[in-house]
């Protein structure tokens, strides 16, 4: 069973209908909900949990005024389920739809949920009906046949306790303990050993332990995990079965509430995967909010891979803030939740006709840094790492004018796409997800394809800023060295260059002024041999420039080459911090100002103003 189509409207921040169409690609049936905070990711999972929570009938669901975007309109949810088993088709006979796909009948079940708010009584009236028979309510028993397992972002050890509505409790209820129950109740002191006699429990604990050890580093020992009886007052034994994990450094078991939150998150996924893997869950959709919570990066990546493995056998919904998961999946399986300035959320997926070659190009160059774009209100795309470090720092240097220059605060990402070809593929992807961007392009006079590439970029991105067209100085390093006084540039390089590169710079500067003044050139040679500081070369260079002004451009080109040898985000941050006063108004207007406006902000004489 899987969700084929989902539509939600008027629920919390969903003013208009949002639609999610899950895609099964390369055997993985997964929907990854991403977006900034309060964009509606958790709301999608919450409303599904409300509908399909097996412990609550529809008529007992409680809704507040704040759950309605507009109190004058009903909350509406439409769900189409497909890949129904023969047993489910029999249970819902006369209510399913059938269509021919590849010469075979494919069955689906459509449900409609609505909540009407009565302002007079201040009460909400929920109902769930069949699309084929709108007058027929879905009974509590019928609803329980649809298995939806949800773990929210606030999960803790209670999810792994045998509580009535917990994941562990719901799954544990499917194990047959009839033969063991009498022995357990009569010999409570031997309860743990009695449980070991149940082959289903042995298989279950072994699989949970194996999967958990694959995700997080735990001792490679037998009997790592066990189930025990927690109390002697049990009438229903299953209510008092709890999970324990052996302590890392000793032969001691700990209750799950004594474990770290990260390990508890891992066990939540391990439990579901274990039961699905040993055939105890023939049907069921699994949803988890922020699976990365409380896990260090390596464990996060292992957790994501386990979730992807689970998605081969069960449909999985994931809401996440982690770029690491995004780089592991196909972009078609991303559902981007975007929030406008009024707090209204929309959902965006790649259209069916989005060219596969663009997806392939994006996946080829995707990394965690680029995936950050999906959590952004707007993106500033660059060709190199220096700009990636420069713009956020340059923005921070300008917050005395307007706090919106703090790009992290307003949700703007600066991303190094790594060249014009990659930029084109990235812009197409951003355009289809509705993420606005500004692109900063280097000028390369030696690149024969520069004009063609620039034209193609401008055709798909209306906000392109090309750095000044100066041969050998058309990149950000050249721009900086063309606008900052030479003495400041040299003082900067004195601080950041290694001794070997300082020697190289002395030699390069010597060559730059040799034709203009051989004597001063030789002085630079002697300074290099005597390990003098670059600062001491400043008076010599200024004197040569005074007598031969045209040598200044050669000196600046030489300094730019030294900057290029240390290009990177750290260098960019230092440039933004030290030289912020030397970036022109035109540069700021076409880069930072442009992307801030696209993000939904603009400058105000008071300082901060949101659109």
TrEMBL record:
Domain ATPase AAA-type core: 30-327
PANTHER family: ATP/GTP PHOSPHATASE (PTHR43581), ATP_GTP PHOSPHATASE (PTHR43581:SF4)
Coiled coil: 517-544
Lineage per the UniProt record: Bacteria, Bacillati, Bacillota, Bacilli, Bacillales
Native organism: Laceyella sacchari
CDD domains linked to this entry: ABC_ATPase, TOPRIM_OLD
Signal peptide: none
Matches recorded under SUPFAM superfamilies: P-loop containing nucleoside triphosphate hydrolases (SSF52540)
Name of this protein: AAA family ATPase
A Pfam family assignment: AAA_21
Keywords, sorted A to Z: Coiled coil
Residue span(s) of domain OLD protein-like TOPRIM: 374-444
Keyword Electron transport: no
Gene3D superfamilies assigned to the protein according to its UniProt record, in alphabetical order: P-loop containing nucleotide triphosphate hydrolases
Domain of life according to the entry: Bacteria
């Amino acid at each position: 069973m899987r969700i084929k189509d989902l539509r939600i409207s008027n629920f919390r921040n969903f003013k208009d209908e949002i639609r999610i169409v899950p895609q099964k690609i390369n055997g993985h049936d997964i929907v990854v909900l991403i977006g900034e905070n309060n964009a509606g990711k958790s709301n999608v999972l919450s409303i599904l949990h409300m509908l399909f929570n097996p412990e609550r009938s529809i008529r007992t669901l409680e809704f507040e005024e704040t759950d309605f975007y507009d109190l004058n309109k009903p909350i509406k949810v439409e769900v189409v389920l497909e890949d129904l088993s023969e047993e489910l088709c029999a249970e819902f006979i006369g209510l399913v739809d059938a269509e021919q796909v590849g010469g075979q009948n494919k069955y689906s079940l459509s449900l409609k949920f609505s909540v009407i708010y009565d302002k007079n009584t201040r009460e909400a009236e929920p109902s769930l009906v069949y699309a084929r028979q709108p007058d027929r309510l879905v009974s509590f028993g019928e609803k329980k046949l649809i298995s939806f397992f949800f773990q929210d972002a606030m999960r803790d050890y209670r999810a792994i306790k045998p509580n009535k509505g917990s994941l562990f409790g719901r799954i544990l209820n499917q194990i047959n303990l009839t033969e063991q129950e009498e022995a357990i109740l009569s010999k409570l002191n031997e309860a743990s050993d009695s449980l070991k006699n149940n082959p289903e429990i042995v298989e279950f604990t072994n699989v949970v332990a194996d999967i958990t050890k694959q995700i997080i580093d735990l001792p490679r020992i037998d009997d790592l995990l066990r189930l025990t009886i927690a109390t002697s007052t049990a009438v229903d034994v299953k209510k008092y079965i709890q999970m324990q994990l052996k302590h890392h450094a000793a032969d001691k078991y700990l209750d799950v509430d004594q474990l770290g939150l990260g390990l508890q998150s891992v066990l939540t996924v391990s439990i579901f995967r274990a039961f699905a893997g040993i055939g105890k869950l023939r049907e069921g959709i699994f949803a988890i909010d922020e699976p990365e919570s409380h896990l260090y990066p390596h464990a996060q990546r292992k957790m994501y891979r386990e979730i992807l493995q689970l998605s081969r056998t069960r449909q999985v919904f994931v809401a996440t803030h982690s770029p690491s998961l995004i780089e592991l999946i196909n972009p078609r399986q991303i559902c981007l939740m975007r929030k406008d300035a009024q707090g209204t959320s929309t959902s965006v997926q790649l259209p069916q006709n989005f060219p596969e070659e663009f997806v392939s190009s994006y996946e080829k160059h995707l990394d965690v840094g680029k995936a950050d774009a999906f959590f952004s209100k707007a993106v500033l795309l660059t060709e190199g790492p220096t700009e990636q470090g420069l713009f956020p720092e340059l923005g921070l240097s300008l917050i005395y004018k307007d706090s919106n220059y703090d790009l992290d605060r307003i949700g703007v990402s600066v991303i190094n796409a790594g060249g014009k070809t990659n930029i084109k593929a990235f812009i197409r992807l951003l355009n289809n997800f509705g993420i606005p961007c500004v692109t900063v392009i280097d000028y390369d006079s030696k690149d024969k394809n520069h004009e063609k590439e620039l034209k193609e970029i401008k055709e798909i991105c209306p906000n392109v800023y090309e750095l000044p067209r100066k041969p050998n100085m058309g990149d950000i390093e050249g721009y900086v060295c063309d606008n900052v006084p030479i003495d400041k540039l040299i003082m900067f390089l004195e601080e950041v260059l290694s001794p070997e590169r300082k020697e190289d710079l002395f030699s390069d500067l010597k060559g730059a002024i040799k034709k203009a003044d051989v004597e001063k050139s030789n002085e630079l040679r002697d300074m290099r041999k005597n390990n003098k500081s670059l600062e001491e070369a400043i008076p010599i260079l200024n004197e040569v420039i005074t007598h031969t002004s045209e040598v200044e451009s050669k000196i600046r080109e030489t300094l730019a080459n030294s900057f290029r040898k240390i290009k990177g985000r750290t260098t960019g941050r230092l440039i933004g911090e030290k030289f912020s006063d030397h970036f022109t108004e035109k540069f700021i207007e076409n880069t930072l100002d442009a992307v801030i406006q696209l993000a939904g902000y603009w400058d105000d004489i008071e300082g901060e103003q949101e659109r």
